[in-house]
Amino acid sequence: MPVMRSVFYVPGNNESFIKKAPTLPADIITLDLEDSVPPAEKAKAREMVRENLKFAGSGGSAVYVRVNNWETLMTNDDLEAVVHEGLSGICLAKCGHPDDVRRLDWKLEELERRRGLPVGSIAVQLLCETAKGVINAYPSAIASKRVNSLIFGAVDYTKDMRVKLTSEGVEQFYARSHVAVAARAAGCIAIDCPFVAFQDVEAFEKSTREGRQMGYEGRMLIHPNQIEPANRIYAPSPEDIEWAQGVVKVFEEEGIAKGAAAVSYKGKMVDTPVYENARTILKTVEEINAFEQKRKKNG
Length: 299
Ligand code: COA
Ligand code: MG
Known about the structure:
about 300 residues, 2 domains, eight-stranded parallel barrel, 10 strands, about 50% helix, binds magnesium ion
């Protein structure tokens, strides 16, 4: 699975922010053409983003671009401008229906062919951030093989639901849970919502840990001070790794080798799903280490 602990947003019209991108240790840098760019600046932002695709990834992060949703009539222009070498994925804002994804898939294939890029190489990430988008998260996620992740977008979601956005997030509970389950059901990575109170790092960490327990494996971030905590919280902790190594050892030596399917470790039952979960943790560690090595080499 790709490593997506930190999905960091940079407004596509902000030159000084874009200049910082290669210095930030985010797994993904997303150059935004949607709501952080005012309508009058969209054309300028498309140019700026196109010119900076390779630069933004020069520190070793993967580069995605968030495009405006189809209803705005801007999606086509956004895609025409940014599907070039250096782009790893497109994030579709306000995805509402699997048809939105199919349309994006076809357009990406056309642009990949026209630009001489390998067909299927541009990944798709969906923002589920309306009531309709949340309800349709699973069918949207399976509408194209390109979809590798779903983001729950709390800011637009609370607007659509006509409720207040809070740091505690009780108003998001159902939708946040739903998007995480839909993502996993589709074999995708679940990316948690932005946390707008960016100066309150303690509350950010608490909320991120809660989301992690719901199944989120990364978070959409808006401020540089959220990157380090996200990279730390979504990586297995030293205690998680020690537990996973212990579980694997005891299950293989006392279970598999001796014909038992349930064994005991530190006072708790370990059976096949617990063993497989432990192996997933160790695999995640390997994937993160490989990604960090690659970043060091490329960055
Ligand atoms: N990308 C790159 N650099 C950023 C950044 C971002 N998204 N957000 C902040 N920074 C930089 C600032 O330029 C500043 O750098 P400096 O110390 O060299 O001057 C430093 O980080 C600290 O920034 P700070 O002063 O605390 O924040 P701010 O008031 O400049 O900006 C926001 C606050 C919320 C406006 C800004 O973080 C932002 O625009 N975030 C992204 C918003 C977005 O993409 N929204 C759409 C998705 S929900
Ligand atoms: Mg939004």
